[in-house]
Design goal:
The strands form three sheets. The protein has a nine-stranded antiparallel beta sheet with strand order 4-7-16-11-12-13-10-9-8. Strands 1, 2, 3, 5 and 6 form a five-stranded antiparallel beta sheet that branches. It has a two-stranded antiparallel sheet with strand order 14-15. With about 270 residues, the chain is mainly beta. It has two domains: about 120 residues, Immunoglobulin-like, CATH 2.60.40; about 120 residues, no CATH class. The chain has two helices and 16 strands.
Length: about 270
């Protein structure tokens, strides 16, 4: 839990297996989820208040039962702002461990206090012209009756624009992945489009958007007693073009490093490859 009691990290998953660099060495992977104490509520909730993002994580301590601190050993770590998770990945711990005596994580939490709205109207065909969005660009790559495809990346042709934005707003979570998840799309009939499929790589992301279908109840044939209706989703509806894309970027934010300490973290048994 953070010192002020606002945030808590809970262990969501832990694994122990061979190191990717040496199969004779054990390595641990653990994922933690950020939770928050909601205003005027005593209990923590996984529904963290809006406008909260994770920037980075520093592994300060990873102390074994022997007393050895392996925080500096091989391994990697990252945060995922879309899921509000922190991951320590394949950290080498030597021999198989039953638990960690102590684990200390320093997580940078960002709270956006003011947003800058962007809006792109009258989009009705695929166009290679990028839509400029500060640290990245969005391209409408395909237009179909029931699907709209977008691609997002920080294209090298606009590197100076990206650099100028980053100097003013040095936030790491503002990537092409953020673009795919944060963009809002509505069509000429006022229908909202949702992300139905996304592909994310290091250099760019792409997403397929469709009008979100509503659930339908399917009733069993007559005479099949004891069966309850099942729920399926109706086919995607046609998109009424032109569509409008909107996105918000931070204008002002607050950043703080929050320290989380764990004692006696249990670890699963060693799971060998294969």
């Amino acid at each position: 839990m953070s010192a002020d009691g606002r945030y808590r990290l809970s262990l969501a998953n832990a694994e122990q297996g061979p190191s990717p660099w040496d199969e004779k060495v054990a390595a641990i992977t653990a994922t933690f989820r950020l939770e928050s104490r909601m205003p005027a509520e005593a209990d923590f909730s996984s529904q963290v208040p809006a406008d909260v993002f994770l920037e980075k994580v520093d592994l300060q301590e990873a102390v074994l039962l022997s007393g050895e601190d392996v925080a500096g050993q091989k391994g990697s770590k990252w945060t995922d702002s879309s899921a509000l998770t922190v991951t320590i990945h394949t950290l080498e711990v030597g021999k198989e461990q039953r638990q960690l005596r102590k684990l200390t994580l320093a997580v940078t939490v960002v709270k956006v206090t003011e947003w800058e709205p962007l809006e792109f109207k009258n989009i009705q065909k695929a166009d290679e012209t990028p839509l400029h969005c500060g640290p990245f660009e969005i391209v409408v790559s395909e237009v179909q009756p029931q699907h709209l495809l977008l691609a997002a990346a920080a294209f090298s042709d606009h590197a100076k624009e990206h650099e100028a934005y980053r100097q003013r707003m040095p936030l790491q979570f503002l990537t092409h992945r953020y673009a795919m998840q944060a963009v809002q799309i509505s069509d000429a009939a006022g229908q909202r489009l949702g992300l139905s499929m996304g592909t994310y790589t290091g250099g760019g992301s792409s997403g397929r958007y469709a009008v979100s279908p509503g659930p339908l109840l399917v009733f069993p044939p007559k005479g099949e007693a004891g069966q309850t209706p099942s729920s399926i989703f109706s086919p995607a509806k046609d998109i009424r073009y032109p569509v409008t894309l909107s996105l918000k970027l931070p204008r002002k934010y607050e950043s703080e490093q929050v320290i989380f300490e764990f004692q006696d973290v249990p670890l699963p048994a060693f799971n060998p490859r294969g």
